[in-house]
Amino acid sequence: MSMFRAKKLDLGCFVNTKIMRDHTKRKVFAENEAERQALRYIIHNTTLPARARAQAQLQLSQMHCYTRPTQIRNRCILGGKGRGVLRDFKLSRFQFRMNALAGNLPGVKKASW
Amino acid sequence: MSVSRSRVVDLMKVQCRIFSSIFNPTGQRLGNKILRQRLRGPTVAAYYPRRIATFKDLQKEYKAFEMYDETEEDRLESIQIAKSRGKGAPTKKRTAAESKKNKGKKK
Fold first, then answer.
1. Do A93 and A49 belong together in one domain?
2. Could you give a single Gene Ontology term from the biological process aspect (chain A) (predicted)?
């Protein structure tokens, strides 16, 4: 959503719309995480009055979808791909292969036995 | 040898006081597991590398120095070649008359 997006692009990696969107979602999630956790605590606490818990449930479900952690997806920082991304390198499998074979990734070498 | 329930509860109480944890002998769901979770926001938000100073920023900062931007030079060179072959972009039409000149049906 455009209201969350940074006015000036603050990304230093490969940029496309999906990466910008995911980056925005990450920042919005980080901002709202404390509030979400507080609401979740109220919901999970069975000793609190049922009314308060129901209200917290409603409030949590009505928060913007960009504040949800499930909206976030790891993407390749060299190609923007959303599938087959190796978490340790933040690269998609093919980018990983090309960079590993080129020797750009320290400590990675092709297995052979 | 069995220990009475009350003594175990006392022990738990003292344990909770010392380690400042929640005393909850009946095993109620207090939602403390959520309070124990650490906030993932900062690590999640730091996934993509942030924008750092680029070559253009450096040039803008130090205008007095002559710098060689290879990609920019390559671009200018390719434009030069295209123009010399007559394949360059058409010149910008400044007036309405100029822009109308070649319009209409193809003959």
1. no
2. translation
Among candidates B34, B49, B51 on the partner chain, residue whose Cβ is nearest the Cβ of A37: B34
Based on the structure, what is the number of domains in chain A?
2
Which DSSP category does A89 fall into?
Answer: T
- Domain match, A68 and A23 both: yes
A27 to chain B: closest CA residue: B45
Mutation choice for B interface testing from A9, A15, A44 by most B CBs within 10 A: A44
Q: Say yes or no: A85 and A68 in one domain.
A: no
Q: Closest Cα of chain A to B47: distance in Å?
A: 8
Q: What is the Cα Rg of chain B in Å?
A: 37
Q: At what angle do helices A17-44 and A50-61 cross, to 10 degrees?
A: 180
Domain enclosing residue B29, as ranges: 5-47
Helix/strand/coil for A92: strand
ipTM above 0.90, yes or no: no
**Which DSSP letter does residue A11 get?**
B
Per-residue pLDDT tens for A11-67? Answer: 888 999 999 999 999 999 999 999 999 999 999 999 999 999 999 999 999 999 999
- Residue for token pair 């990304």: A11
Does B49 contact A77 at a Cβ distance shorter than 8 Å?
yes
Q: Say which of B29, B42, B50 has its CB closest to residue A44.
A: B29
